[in-house]
Amino acid sequence: MTGSTPRQQLFLNTVILGGSAEGKLRAAHEAGFDAVELWDRDVTGELGGPAGARGVLRGLGMQVTDYQVLLNFDGTTQRAAKRAEALELLERMAEVGAPMLVVSASFDEHAGGSLARIAEDLDWIAAAAGQRELRVAYEPMAWSRWVSTLPEAAALLARVNRPNLGLVVDSFHLLLRDRPVEEVAAIPAERIFLVQLADSALRPGERDLTAEAYMQQGRHARLLPGEGCLPVRALAEVLRGGGYAGPVGIEVFNDRLSAADPAVVARDAMASLRRLGF
Question: Which Gene3D superfamilies does the entry mention (predicted)?
């Protein structure tokens, strides 16, 4: 018998949707998404904790791609407090059934910029996750203070050398800074754990922003892939050409979309992925 290639998991980050936490999950499911990026605030809030979240997900037949999010962890000067927070997140996500924690590269202006210290923190979180058979996806962001590009993040991963520590490739953070998509081609596909797609209305020449302006765009004005000016299709082609077969989804923070009908927005999000060939 000839085996078939498993279909690529398609996910939706529920931050794009308005309404209740359970309603967001239902809208994603009805739009055809396999999985969601689940936020800790929803689990501990409306969903009533890990058991409640797990029950809703099981009822819908939905999976969790990753758990959101550990911020300002790497290079922190508050190691004890941030490590305690990290352990709490790892315990809750394990109870929910989420296989991977997203750790965003620090944007804390008061944190230390030592790459050795950042590597130590990443090694610690990868080891703690590994003890629970979980993975960590490290995300360089356009407004991150110390590690804001994929080559910088990839060099750190090589330094730490933990098999359960990989990268997030986020089209918004990569392409808004006019970084070449060839940077993705230089990363082995197995070191990419997660691909998040979004677009921006900013054109070339309008993208040389301060960290604060990048953050404002990223948290309020992202667009669905294909609705803006970023070369998201070229990025998708590079990922396919490099053999990436992991989770691909939509992470769009947009004030207008989160105020709209979540069922319509979820369907539009799925349509944007389909137009990219996923």
Answer: Divalent-metal-dependent TIM barrel enzymes (3.20.20.150)
Q: Which amino acid is at 214?
A: Y
User: Residues near 37 by Cβ (< 8 Å), separated by ≥ 6?
Assistant: 11, 12, 13, 14, 15, 64, 65, 66, 67, 68, 102, 196, 249, 251
Residue 10: exposed, middle, or buried by beta-carbon count in 10 A (0-12, 13-18, 19+)?
buried
From CA 37, how far away is CA 42, in angstroms rounded?
Answer: 11
What is the signed CA dihedral for 200, 202, 208, 212, rounded to 10 degrees? -60
Residues 162-202: tens digit of each pLDDT: 999 999 999 999 999 999 999 999 999 999 999 999 999 99
Listed in sequence order, the DSSP H helices in the chain are: 21-30, 40-44, 50-60, 79-96, 115-131, 150-160, 171-175, 182-185, 211-220, 232-241, 255-258, 262-275
Task: Name the CA radius of gyration of the chain, rounded.
Answer: 18
Residue 64: φ, ψ to 5°: -110, 120
Between the CA of residue 252 and those of 17, 145, 242, 272, 277, what are the distances in Å?
9, 22, 24, 12, 19
Task: Give the pLDDT confidence score for residue 4 in this predicted structure.
Answer: 47
Cβ neighbours of 44 (radius 10 Å): 15
pTM of the shown model: 0.96
Q: Decide which of 1.20.140.10, 3.20.20.150, 3.30.70.330, 1.25.10.10 is the CATH code for 12-275.
A: 3.20.20.150
Rounded to 10 degrees, the C-alpha dihedral 176/135/128/70 comes to 30
CA pair distance 157, 153, nearest whole angstrom? 6
